[in-house]
Amino acid sequence: MSASGFQKAFEGYLYENNTDGSGKASSYLKSIEWLHAMLDIESYGFSDCKDVWSINDVSRLSALRKRVLEEKRKQSESPWVHPNIPVSYLRDGYCTSALADLIEFIPEFEHVQRVMESHAQHTNSSELAEKLNFEPTIPEGYVHDPKSKDGQDRICEAKTRIGQAAFRKMILSNYQNRCCITGLDITTLNRASHIIGWSDPKGKKIRMDPSNGLCLSATYDAAFDQHLISVDPDNRLLISKEIQNHYSNESVTTYFKNREGQAITLPYRDQPNQSYLEVHRKAGNF
């Protein structure tokens, strides 16, 4: 992928994963532009990083982040504190935070690419479940001390997050970024809901199986996760008896009662596995 394509993918990552609104994501992107200007003033041996978007080496970016932290500590003595560069980007840690997010993004980006390539090559869901059940590669330099407990914990968390990101990409692609209940097509509000949960021991071998997922908007994702809604063998929406007790509430009527028995929109490939849905229904009160 070109540097511009990589930059665009990172922008999407920031906006999708930024829970504090678009302002923070925009600030991170702008801080990388200012970092390029800082390196033009004094590169400290990082002239190859004057275009960060062309660097996908985690250890190199980690070394650059360390230098940025050193310059931040220098405060006004740093040559990077320059009249033409807003001081807040270095002083308030936006540059270091942006680089930290970029370092986290790279292994996720590479893993998602591998998963989506394999997904495109195989159309058999059971075959895919096995083909896609491989761990993400965490590159050297991702954590300071990979042998420490903290380092091991961070690597384990990263593998889970990266795997779930790849699963989300597959499911949203299959459902064309639309909630299968409402048709909502705002990507940031939709979720890739596991039918048999990621952490469920029964789901370990099928956690990356695309037929083990539904695209649901946030409210329905939460209800599905708590087994308050499910899908019947005819792919129609089931409502738990626990929700039925609240049918007098107008919002519950709008979101749930009025949709009971509605057929969900099926994906263009990798349709929900009925045996997985049966397991999900049995865990609820339907």
How does this structure look, described?
This protein has 286 residues and is mainly alpha-helical. It has two domains: 3-109, no CATH class; 122-282, no CATH class. Helix content is 50%, strand content 6%. The protein has eleven helices and four strands, in the order αααααααββαββααα. The strands form two sheets. The protein has a two-stranded antiparallel ribbon with strand order 1-2. The chain has a two-stranded antiparallel ribbon with strand order 3-4. The N and C termini lie far apart (48 Å). The mean pLDDT is 91.
Mean residue pLDDT: 91
The helix tally amounts to 11
Major sheet: 2 strands, antiparallel
Q: Beta-sheet strand percentage?
A: 5-15%
Structural class, by secondary structure, is: mainly alpha
Which residues form runs of ≥5 with pLDDT under 50?
A: none
Using DSSP, what is the number of strands?
4
Helix content: 40-55%
Number of domains: 2
Q: In which order are the strands of the major sheet placed?
A: 1-2
Shape: elongated
Give the helices and strands, then pairings.
Layout: H1 3-17, H2 22-41, H3 58-74, H4 88-91, H5 94-121, H6 125-131, H7 149-174, E1 190-194, E2 213-217, H8 218-225, E3 229-231, E4 237-239, H9 241-244, H10 250-255, H11 274-282
Antiparallel strand pairs: 1-2, 3-4
Helix pairs in contact: 1-5, 2-5, 3-5, 5-7
